[in-house]
Amino acid sequence: xxxxxxxxxxxxxxxxxxxxxxxxxxxxxxxxxxxxxxxxxxxxxxxxxxxxxxxxxxxxxxxxxxxxxxxxxxxxxxxxxxxxxxxxxxxxxxxxxxxxxxxxxxxxxxxxxxxxxxxxxxxxxxxxxxxxxxxxxxxxxxxxxxxxxxxxxxxxxxxxxxxxxxxxxxxxxxxxxxxxxxxxxxxxxxxxxxxxxxxxxxxxxxxxxxxxxxxxxxxxxxxxxxxxxxxxxxxxxxxxxxxxxxxxxxxxxxxxxxxxxxxxxxxxxxxxxxxxxxxxxxxxxxxxxxxxxxxxxxxxxxxxxxxxxxxxxxxxxxxxxxxxxxxxxxxxxxxxxxxxxxxxxxxxxxxxxxxxxxxxxxxxxxxxxxxxxxxxxxxxxxxxxxxxxxxxxxxxxxxxxxxxxxxxxxxxxxxxxxxxxxxxxxxxxxxxxxxxxxxxxxxxxxxxxxxxxxxxxxxxxxxxxxxxxxxxxxxxxxxxxxxxxxxxxxxxxxxxxxxxxxxxxxxxxxxxxxxx
Amino acid sequence: xxxxxxxxxxxxxxxxxxxxxxxxxxxxxxxxxxxxxxxxxxxxxxxxxxxxxxxxxxxxxxxxxxxxxxxxxxxxxxxxxxxxxxxxxxxxxxxxxxxxxxxxxxxxxxxxxxxxxxxxxxxxxxxxxxxxxxxxxxxxxxxxxxxxxxxxxxxxxxxxxxxxxxxxxxxxxxxxxxxxxxxxxxxxxxxxxxxxxxxxxxxxxxxxxxxxxxxxxxxxxxxxxxxxxxxxxxxxxxxxxxxxxxxxxxxxxxxxxxxxxxxxxxxxxxxxxxxxxxxxxxxxxxxxxxxxxxxxxxx
Lengths: 516, 299
Prior knowledge:
By secondary structure, chain A is α/β, with parallel strands linked by helices. Chain A has 20 helices and twelve strands. The longest helix of chain A is centred in the N-terminal third of the chain and has 24 residues, at 108-131.
């Protein structure tokens, strides 16, 4: 029954054809079990305190958390109110709630917010008490209980800051070891989003320790991985750490799990910086470029009223910005088929599907009962078909039908072909001056030039630099310095350019793709 | 457990010298995994055999056990070294905070300066939690780039305009002429703010506050106000290249909107950016009739 949507449904309500949680059925590793285990651990933490609770989530993890535990389950275990950790949040004063639970990443900024809120809530409770005329022992004072769970692990720094702020004594502190989160049946993620910056600009390697820890945790479920290969400095660090941590973690206690993975390949992001600088052209990629996909969700804006540019009447169209969140993952059977297809082929594919459905519908009278039943099941695909047709046409408008987009694409393709460096630099300048693209978009193009050419040509380097500073303010100096420190953009200093040879040797650019 | 007990009692036998005890223990235990050398070392230390303890601790693979013990044995630098080797930043912080608590600031900075990984990490921490320490940390060797970035950063944070100008002039003066780029940036920021201050004074009745705008925005508003002399001054002072100036002017004129002026401008001098941008801004404002004017001359 229901095929792929089974795993998408959990206790707490069916979600229909496409759930927020991806289907992990076809996975080669026990990911479904990993996910269940993660949810179970969270429930265990919540169940430590009986009764109703307020749950405060670090916004950075609430997204990934939804892939592991759904809100229905949280409610079943006493979560009465759910908030994001942010300044000004008041956590006390809720009727019949005695417990406040924080689930956060171990950052200094978070600790300051937590401390503020705990102090505020305790102060508030005391004030209320005094108002009620309760002296010491007078009136049943219900003390608020605070728990802070760090994920993936707690740190000395955080405990130290809580101590300095004077709240450590009022808190119960522990860890929620959520490491690798299944995003798809073949994709796991740690969702640590500042690693590249930390490693390449600040030379802070602490996140690599987390990566190694996560793999060691994985090995506890999937067995020790005998062969490790990799490329890049960070990969070497991670590989060494895995070995070290493996020694530290006594695996000889219980019988080690059977080996399910035979090779681990570690690749630094820095090994290929060219790909992220190019505009993505698959269906999923373009959706990400235009609308942004986070934690498997895309926010689809409501269709704006037909008008070019700003509304002349000055009517505030606040609703045009906000949209509805739509899950995009493998539990959406149609998406599974379309996601990696080059966008050019999407239109025909969607049309074919729709035509196919119509054809079958026409012939429905001549079908047997079971065939009709099959067809009706297929009809369930209609809302999804609709949704994708809508998405696809939105994307189409901003891409294939947008001259700026096409020009940018030609620029990128020329660069990959090893020509048009000067033209690309001039186009980058034009983009900057016309102010039609964000600074990030302009820098992305410049980075592409720098990467395929071993540096931005001298005659453009300074004018681009100064252009950026004059346009976006001298404060951008810090950003420019970071970008240069990371190696993404540099000045061409002569010498050999390795990219053309690499491209040829590894067949990096594929000219023809067969998407039939 | 039995083995650890055996090793501990061996350690307690004060008549045997360090080396033979060490060799005996290592020989017996080296092939057995999961032994807590930290426990054995701790016993050795309690019995006053600190050198032996340190050497035993070398065999402890679990850094989380090794490092705290080293700290309690007052082997701060070794603890730091081992913590860095482990790659566990949490342990590194543990040691650093301990050293900071127990030594004076200067000693702390000396110690940490000797370990660049620890220094890098601690700087990240200080940025958020203890910014007052940053100037001293940046004085350590190898931190010149960061020190400079920090100077720029604090100068930008300066809310008083006069002080900010002075701050940037100071930075510019402190840089050797080889660092021409950073020096120029500091000089230009100071020059920009000074210029904007005087604009705010002389053009006080316009709706625009100039201080805090970028160079491009400053030009834009000056063009809109028709303040031609100041426009030229900004172009010169900041060496704004022609193609950028043309774009700014085209967009500024379109924003008023001043379509006639725009058309005159297109005829006045040969445009380094062609005529397409002129037409584009007209189209963006739905002024088809204006856009059409440029079409015949677009090559």
